[in-house]
């Protein structure tokens, strides 16, 4: 049942009628203190609920708003007994103030504010921002941004009492203002920094001291005008504020700018005017080709989007959120997929799918991880993903702005799980859940469809589709009995319908199902007798290999399983396992939503696990779990060995399955496997850590570290490493603790959390000493030396690296020797001795070249090239940086290749060849634009003309 109003009008006549009654005399301003007028006459709308109601209609001006949604926005959880009556009373009063035609009643009790959107400053502001984004020149964009920002007079909706506005609307509007203001400042700075820009940024940073992006622009403007000391002082100020208020360090972009200032390197920054095309993911799983019935439900869903206008003149339509709820097995996902495919042509820019596992045996997907997954699907580099959920959510909205997006969020537990994923405008979001998600309707305006079991006619139609019309026509009474026995539950009907194809008559099916339902235990697993009977009956009809696989799939730690993992868990050859999976799929015991990947419905998975515990011995079940955990570990090591070819994996035990791990030909294949399996691997690790398989848990995480460093936001990586550490402790595995402490410290070094990194590295060293793991000890000593060098204690840092170097040389561990030499060089630089640093870099370079370790070797060459530049040895710098760029190109690591090319261009320019330098900068610019790297602004100017590059060399 659809729990909101439905639009019953259709056709152009009624739509055009709405256009004709638009009021052009009413003007409403909310970007500051609340104001309204009719013609030249100011209108005072009484504060309280009446003004809150009009404000809610203002936010959606020109679009109908359901009565239930309005009531939730005006009163929240404290709605009066007759909320619709109260709304009607307030609307009557508002019409008396503004005019009868200004607020239009819609069928079902909703209302629409029918005014000229340009007479509402909020919508005029957003129209100007859309035009600015599409402007053909920086000058035109700047003019439009200034016009838009001039509309702001203060905090939006001042004088309106509304929790909904305060929590949901005003923060989003304020973020839009920040984004537009910062873009306008960027364009001003691109024309040349001025004292007025600095004064404005100083005032803004005083008013908003925790907004790092404003400090970034202030420091940039100060250094542009030659005020380097003031720029360094501003950095110290924001660092102090962040430490005192939040206990964190400035973000990576501010830290990079600070380092450039310390090196006295001019970095001119402006948001790039051009950007490469963003990916257009089309992730919807296959729809069920045998979908039948649900005509009324589909009609209700169609009505929700019937009046959405995507014309160029209409502006961005609102995001439509549809929440489909219902009991387990009622076909929520099937309906959602069917309708999503029907709507896909209206949302061509992105079609996103995410199973949030709200009711599976695994932990539900947390909002921060869900947003990160979406951003990764949309091609947002991991370096740009913020730490805080609110900031991630804002980035997702910005990424989707102006894109017609369809988003299917499946198996949702509660509204909080999806709220951060909702796009701002122009999207269709379909949510499925066993809960009714009332707060999503109240707070976010979601339209709810409560899905019931199939009607008798639809249930019989489903049987006709599966068993054939002739058989149903021959036994109509038996078909009716089957529909009745399954009580219209689509999941039970689908399983039974498949079985009817293997029996002589429908009457025999009725008798078998009736007998099954009379067995004791039909209500086990929290499911009804009709579904339990259908599952049990279908399971007993499977041949032994299929039944064995079905039981083993119930033991798998994640609901999403690949064909390879399924083969491992039953220890069958891949081709044979695929045949068995096809049998289970045909019997509706597993679902195939993507090629080579299968899922079990939560209830079916629970049934399979119960059958495994009842049928298989404990030893057999444990062996199956060990096989699949071993396989994930060995395949992760196989992939990691491609990403880090010389890395040691002395902690991996022999494989217990006859199915070999996947072998990868190149880095692209290894990365693609990690990308595809990451969510599954995370579930496997969490399950293993919680169920006594801690040794596998920490080893799998350590085998993922290179991939996580490159592709996963550091917060998600840190959480998995904390899980690995807890698992190793629970298993009393000191070696595992050492690896986890060391890997956590590496992440903390990247985030400049040096005190925490020191503590973890000291504990890692203790663990490795206790277990006699000398290779791990030299690794941790090298990292500890680096931390002390970065923390202003280079002498201590040099000593730790010297100890690590001696131990690595004693072991004959060349990679450890080279790593310690590289970090020793950094300690020498911190002590002001570039020549000793260069000697260490050169020794490390020879070792990395001997062992063929390209990635750390390329980083060492990058460091070497920078030291050569610092000492004026530009020809040597060119040679080192050219080799570094070539190494990163071989690794297909575009980010670091661009950094090497950036430095290479500077080295070449210092030899008096600006034309050659521009070739390097142009190649680096393409990638740095994508990553929003602050160096892109400088490169924009340097590649623009020969004169600008030549001028840079002279200066």
What does it look like?
The protein has 955 residues and is mainly alpha-helical. Among the domains are: 1-191, Winged helix-like DNA-binding domain superfamily/Winged helix DNA-binding domain (Arc Repressor Mutant, subunit A); 295-450, 3-Layer(aba) Sandwich (Rossmann fold); 453-541; 733-852, Serine Threonine Protein Phosphatase 5, Tetratricopeptide repeat (Alpha Horseshoe), CATH 1.25.40.10; 877-955. It has 44 helices and 13 strands. The chain has a five-stranded parallel sheet, sandwiched between helices. Strands 1-2-3 form a three-stranded antiparallel sheet, with no helix packed on it. It is flat.
Quick structural overview:
With 955 residues, the protein is mainly α. Helices cover 62% and strands 6% of the residues. A 5-stranded parallel sheet has the order 7-8-9-6-10, sandwiched between helices. A 3-stranded antiparallel sheet has the order 1-2-3, with no helix packed on it.
